[in-house]
Design brief:
The complex is a heterotrimer of chains A (about 170), B (about 240) and C (about 90). With about 170 residues, chain A is mainly alpha-helical. Chain A has helices spanning about 15-145, 150-174, and one strand at about 1-5. In chain A, helix 1 packs across helix 2. In chain B, helix 2 crosses helix 4 (about 90-115) and helix 4 runs antiparallel to helix 8 (about 205-240). The longest helix of chain B has about 35 residues, at about 165-200. In chain B, strands 1-2 form a two-stranded antiparallel sheet. Chain B has eight helices and two strands; from the N terminus they run αββααααααα. Chain B has one domain (about 1-240). By secondary structure, chain C is mostly helical. Chain C has one domain (about 15-90): F1F0 ATP synthase subunit C (F1FO ATP Synthase). The radius of gyration of chain C is 22 Å and the shape is rod-shaped. Classes of the chains: A mainly alpha (about 170), B mainly alpha (about 240), C mainly alpha (about 90). The interface between A and B is large, with 39 and 53 residues. Strand 1 (about 1-5) of chain A pairs antiparallel with strand 1 (about 15-25) of chain B, so a sheet runs across the interface.
């Protein structure tokens, strides 16, 4: 093996072939060491990431469905609660109204009773008064006349008198 | 100091030349560029180390949070996919050619960048290296075209759009890999020559690193990307007809 | 005077002339050859910027296509560079 100086441009020689052999070795080595495992690895990772993204999407969809479900249940519950409240309110109002009318009726009834009792009392008192009148009149008359009169006649007379008194009183009242 | 200047002037003396090893094997004379081959090995070792480092990110289970190594690997694969492989005409082609085009890009990139370091030389300033890669891309494009469209369609594509265009198409078949190779080679070599001349003749310090960043890293990156994406374009054109 | 000039001229060999012409040719080759790609790449960048200003969301694709187009239009410049290198180092 010997060395000499050659010019740059003019010499096409075995360097070409040797370099191509070098390049082929490099291609083989890089393919074996780097590109094949790297691409496999990256593909695997891409698949893993893809799977994870899909899982996340599924989870998200599920969560969204759950949320929607919850929301629906909530709105339903709210609707039901509103219904309940409304019905309760209606019932309460009805009860209040009922109790009001009842109370009014009771009051009216009590009033009525009182009035009736009053009237009765008055009537009774009038009747008593009338009897008392009669007796007083009879006694008075006995005293005045000082004689025995036939009770029957007197009674008739007194009744007449009482009626007059009644009429007079009625006139006064009205 | 004097030693450094002597070496620098030696650089200029052998500017535009390269070490050729001559190997006599089985009566045949095998000549090759020693520096280019050694540097190519260095690049291969670096890339394999990078691959081994990035592989550590794969140990951890898929479900866990990505580590820093894994993020780097992720970014690299994503970059190579979105910038290079996704430009292929079909999804099937992209998946099939992803390792090839990625390796091509990384190899050319590191070949360009390694010339920035002292005592190192870009393998891509050797026309053999770039021409070999371009030739490989051209052959691969035609093989893929013949395989995916059938040999008859592939042969007929040379008669498109008119049969008398055959010579022009054949010139295109040869010119494509030539221009593909010369573009990378010319850019990297021009950068190296410029940096060497300026370093030796004008400013041995301060300026060369800046120029190296510009010509070595920036142009190296762009040319590696262009080389790979042109390979994609050639394969696309050949397969789609 | 004339004899001096003659002696200077006779001192110049054919190899010297070839050497001098080589450098002149390489310089001219690079100088003229760089005009075309420079204009072309500038136009590509200008129109890409135009497009980017109009549609900022297309920036990635435009940048990639611009770099690709510039690299292809650079080919002519690279050819002239190659000729220059051949002239300098090989001829």
């Amino acid at each position: 093996m010997s060395f000499e100086w050659g010019t740059i441009v003019k010499s096409i020689n075995w360097t070409l072939v040797f370099n191509l052999i070098n390049f082929a070795i490099l291609l083989y080595l890089l393919q074996r060491l780097l590109f094949k495992p790297a691409i496999q690895y990256l593909d695997k990772r891409r698949e893993a990431v893809h799977a994870r993204i899909q899982a996340a999407q599924a989870d998200e969809e599920q969560a969204a469905a759950l949320v929607a479900e919850q929301k629906e249940a909530l709105s339903e519950a709210r609707k039901r609660a509103e219904g309940i409240v409304e019905s309760a309110q209606r019932e309460a109002e009805a009860a209040i109204a009922a109790s009001k009318t009842e109370a009014r009726e009771a009051a009216e009834r009590i009033l009525e009773d009182g009035r009736r009792q009053l009237v009765q009392e008055r009537d009774r008192m009038i009747a008593e008064l009338r009897e008392a009148y009669a007796e007083i009149t009879v006694i008075g008359a006995e005293r005045v006349l000082d004689r025995e009169i036939k009770i029957e006649d007197h009674r008739r007379l007194l009744d007449q008198l009482l009626e007059e008194i009644d009429e007079e009183r009625l006139r006064i009242e009205s | 100091m004097g030693e450094i200047f002597r070496q620098l002037s030696g650089l200029l003396e052998h500017l535009g030349e390269k070490r050729i090893a001559v190997l006599h094997l089985f009566g045949a004379e095998i000549r090759f560029d020693v520096m280019a081959i050694i540097m190519s090995w260095v690049v291969i070792i670096l890339l394999v180390l990078l691959a081994l480092w990035l592989r550590r990110g794969l140990r951890q289970p898929v479900e866990e949070k990505p580590t820093r190594t894994q993020a780097a690997l992720d970014g690299l694969i994503d970059l190579l996919k979105s910038q290079l492989a996704d430009n292929f005409a079909s999804e099937r082609l992209a998946v099939m050619m992803f390792p090839f085009i990625s390796t091509l890009f990384l190899y050319v990139l590191l070949c360009n960048w390694i010339g920035v370091f002292p005592y190192m030389m870009s393998p891509t300033q050797d026309i053999n290296v770039t021409f070999g890669l371009a030739l490989m891309v051209a052959i691969m494009s035609h093989v893929l075209a013949a395989r995916s469209n059938g040999v008859r369609t592939w042969l007929k594509s040379f008669l498109e759009p008119y049969p008398f265009m055959l010579p022009i198409n054949l010139v295109g078949v040869i010119a494509n890999p030539l221009s593909h190779a010369f573009r990378l080679f010319g850019n990297i070599l021009a950068g190296t020559i410029l940096v060497t001349v300026i370093m030796v003749k004008f400013a041995p310090i301060i300026v060369p690193p800046v120029l190296n960043i510009f010509f070595g890293l920036f142009f190296g990156g762009i040319q590696a990307f262009v080389f790979a994406i042109l390979a994609v374009a050639y394969i696309n054109v050949a397969v789609e007809g | 005077m004339l004899q001096e000039a003659q002696s200077v001229v006779s001192g110049i060999s054919g190899a010297d002339i070839v050497e001098a012409t080589k450098y002149i040719a390489a310089g001219l080759c690079m100088g003229i050859g760089a005009i075309g790609p420079a204009i072309g790449e500038g136009m590509a960048a200008a129109h890409a910027l135009d497009g980017m200003a109009r549609q900022p969301e297309m920036q990635g694709a435009l940048l990639r296509t611009m770099v690709l187009g510039q690299a292809i239009s650079e080919t002519t410049g690279i050819y002239s560079l190659l000729i220059a290198i051949v002239l300098l180092f090989v001829v």
